[in-house]
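Section 5: illustrative case.
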């Protein structure tokens, strides 16, 4: 009987293969099975095995070997006879399956049962992993030479043997590099924005296969030397288009850019400027001042929301879909890009907005107008926060602009001119700052925003202000872990029109004490003129 089970994992950096060896446990019914076989002899009837309590050996079992030569022991019929060799294989597979179910699957690439196959399996896994890393390294090295491209990538192993690196180009999933080393998986892609443009598969024979989801095109047995020219092919008339963009921008703005300052985004099929050049145009939209640790910002909310927050210890951050001002999700969109992507469909603005979360603060502490607007008509509370770390850059001060501003008129002129020439153009830096820009009608709010992105909301609720279903995420208000809220709650101010203000003053203090939170000061509003 086979006694050895081998597991092959990827190292922490996914560069090497680590072999782990396990000795299979004893079959707990072996003594009973031996006694049965002494009476019946071999081969033995499947019906006899089942009636004698060994049905687990007659069901479907997968032999643990390399995926390219895996053997499935099918379910046996009662009238079949089973040989000694087949019975021993089924016992080994049954024991191995039970071991595997209790083994940590982190970075697990492949599994092999039997020492005679171990060396071949390990070499096969090592070859495929090497081909995978060589392909990834060539792509990363190419991208490192590019300037002003936002490049992100991360590698994961899922489903015990499926290794994937997702590579994002300017915040859009552009390439998924995959190797199905020890398993296969059928993945579900929730939206077209989660689908890579290029899917690259490194096969067991180390050949490379490419699939373009936009063109529905497969390229088999691609050569690694030609890979980059396929993935990053120059668009038609690139130099001519770059020159047109240069001439158009220079004619509108007091700036001198060169064709080399114009870059092409393969993921969105559009052109954009190098960051240092774009900033010279959109500098007006960027907030210069940094938020220091001593600076306080406040959030006005209801007493009910305060109770829920203190009781749960979590602060809720809502998606931008539920914002009261419906113009906020697309206020700058026509100034950011002048085109619609080929994958865009009706309702996509909600799909994307559901992954963007914002909570707002104000610089106006204990302010009468803010109490009226956001503090439950002054019956609620004003929460006073300060950044936990002076280096934290997640809080942004809002820049207020108007449609008639000279810069906005120039940007609109540029976008219109390029659109008329069928040139797709985008301001990337402005795209990353769009949620820090707001119409000047709201300037009196002195707003700051904490912004994050996530495709895994904690839940959904209905915004009572606009009756919109909205996802939300949660952060730990009082913790310091990976999911902690980056702002410290310093004090709670009770609204000037709060009912039973004196009672609630002590009730809030009692609730904090019960939860062993002693660092938060409780105050009453200093506004006495509210009516």
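Designed sequence:
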């Amino acid at each position: 009987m086979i006694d050895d089970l081998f597991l092959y994992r990827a190292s922490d950096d996914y560069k090497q293969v680590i072999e782990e060896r396990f000795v299979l446990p004893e079959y707990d019914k072996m003594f009973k099975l031996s006694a049965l076989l002494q009476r019946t002899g071999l081969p033995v009837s499947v019906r006899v095995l089942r009636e004698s309590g060994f049905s687990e050996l007659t069901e479907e079992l997968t032999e643990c070997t390399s995926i390219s030569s895996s053997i499935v022991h099918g379910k046996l019929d009662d009238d079949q006879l089973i040989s000694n060799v087949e019975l021993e294989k089924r016992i080994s597979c049954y024991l191995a399956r039970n071991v595997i179910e209790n083994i940590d699957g982190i970075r697990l690439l492949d599994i092999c049962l039997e020492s005679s196959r171990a060396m071949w399996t390990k070499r096969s896994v090592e070859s495929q992993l090497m081909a995978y890393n060589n392909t990834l390294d060539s792509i990363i090295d190419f991208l490192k030479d590019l300037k002003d491209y936002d490049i992100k990538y991360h590698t994961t192993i899922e489903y015990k043997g499926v290794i994937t690196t997702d590579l994002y180009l300017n915040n859009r999933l552009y390439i998924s590099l995959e190797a199905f080393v020890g398993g296969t998986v059928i993945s579900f892609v929730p939206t077209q924005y989660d689908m890579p443009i290029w899917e690259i598969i490194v096969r067991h024979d180390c050949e490379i296969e490419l699939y373009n989801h936009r063109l529905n095109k497969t390229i088999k047995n691609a050569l690694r030397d030609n890979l980059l020219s396929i993935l990053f092919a120059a668009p038609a008339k690139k130099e001519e288009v770059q020159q047109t963009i240069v001439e158009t921008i220079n004619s509108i703005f007091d700036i001198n850019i060169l064709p080399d300052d114009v870059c092409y985004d393969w993921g969105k099929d559009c052109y954009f400027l190098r960051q240092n050049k774009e900033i010279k145009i959109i500098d007006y939209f960027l907030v210069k001042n940094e938020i220091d640790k001593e600076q306080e910002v406040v959030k006005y909310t209801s007493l009910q929301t305060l109770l829920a927050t203190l009781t749960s210890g979590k602060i809720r951050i809502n998606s931008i879909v539920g914002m009261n001002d419906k113009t906020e999700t697309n206020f700058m969109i026509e100034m950011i890009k002048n085109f619609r992507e080929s994958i865009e469909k009706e309702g996509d603005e909600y799909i994307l907005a559901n992954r963007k979360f914002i909570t707002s603060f104000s610089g106006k502490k204990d302010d009468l107008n803010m109490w009226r607007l956001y503090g439950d008509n002054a019956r609620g509370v004003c929460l006073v926060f300060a950044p936990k770390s002076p280096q934290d850059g997640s809080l942004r001060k809002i820049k207020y602009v108007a449609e008639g501003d000279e810069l906005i008129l120039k940007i609109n002129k540029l976008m219109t001119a390029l659109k008329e020439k069928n040139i797709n153009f985008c301001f990337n830096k402005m795209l990353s700052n769009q949620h820090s820009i707001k119409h000047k009608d709201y300037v009196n709010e002195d707003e700051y925003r904490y912004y994050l992105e996530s495709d895994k909301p904690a839940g959904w609720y209905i915004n009572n202000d606009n009756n919109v279903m909205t996802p939300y995420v949660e952060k730990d208000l009082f913790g310091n872990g990976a999911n902690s809220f980056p702002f410290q709650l310093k004090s709670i101010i009770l609204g000037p029109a709060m009912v039973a203000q004196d009672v609630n003053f002590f009730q809030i203090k009692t609730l904090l004490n019960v939860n062993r939170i002693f660092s938060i000061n409780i105050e009453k509003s200093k506004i006495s003129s509210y009516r």
